[in-house]
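I need you to check the entry underneath: sequence plus fold tokens. Let me know what the token row says about the fold.

>
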Amino acid sequence: MVKNIFHGILFFIVQCVLIFTSCYAQNSVPVRFVFYNVENLFDVTDDSLTLDEAFTPEGENGWSIKRYHEKLDNIAKTLTALGEWELPALLALCEVENRDVLYDLAKHRLLEGAGYKIIHQNSPDRRGIDVGLLYMPAFFTPIISMWIPIEFNADPKMHTRDILYVKGLLFQTDTIHLFINHWPSRWGGVEASMPKRVAVANILRAFTDSIFKADGKPNILIAGDLNDNPDDTAVYKVLGARSKYDGNSSELYNLMFPLYLNEKKGSMKYKADWEVYDQIIVSGSLLDNTGLKVKDGKAVIFSAEFLLKEDERYLGMKPYRTYAGPSYLGGFSDHLPVYIDLSK
């Protein structure tokens, strides 16, 4: 009898220690948020509703099961290297075709231990490429997820990727608002395409303004391939993502500005120029060192050597991409991943 009581008390103590240790780890160890444009992560099946024919075995790119799995291997390798085998708790991706490719990625042998859950919805993009979010439920609990549609009054037939909005709890205690983006490309020229990015920036700013109005110090995290640099009109003037934190918690700040202007780094390369289209923008509350915060107030462009190759035409290095036109190179992506660490 006494022995059973002793074992019961011992079991209770052990469980309390395990729970305390788990909670302490979740609240003391920074978690990583990553955004990665993975460059055309398509499956091999032709979707009759989208223009994905190039990425089928019969298409001009000669896409195949073998190449598809090589692509998954490359993405998984990048993510494990990026965290030195500590996988990101939050992984936002763009240029993914559907939920199936996200499922295959999450079940990859290098990633399956993370237990990733998926938030995804097919977008109206004509090629069928979307944004999506993988998250570890041990660190993040979604409360609301919705897709913000993008409509262009000047061109109602134009379709682009929806913005993914997710409101959730990080570390089980801190509310955070995530906006995952893939803005319209510069196809047709910078000036000709700029109004479309300005339109998306206006829509996004309206949503963030409503959050600021409801909560004076919200934790807002905007990430995505914006197809603009931090100092371009849509990002800097319309969205209002400032270049330097000035202590105002009710404003947005672009963590890529120092990398772009001061360090002359980039996440993708166009001809001879490195650009920072892949961006992470946060509200001031994540920079004021109270509560949830961005570690060191900095973002990182992950530029491991294996993600780059020699640029024979424009000199230096460039991202080691999967395709150059229809030519298969077998690389990783034409963009580099970007990330921040979040801590209490």
In short: Helices lie at 2-28, 65-82, 99-106, 190-214, 233-238, 257-262. The chain has one domain: 31-343.
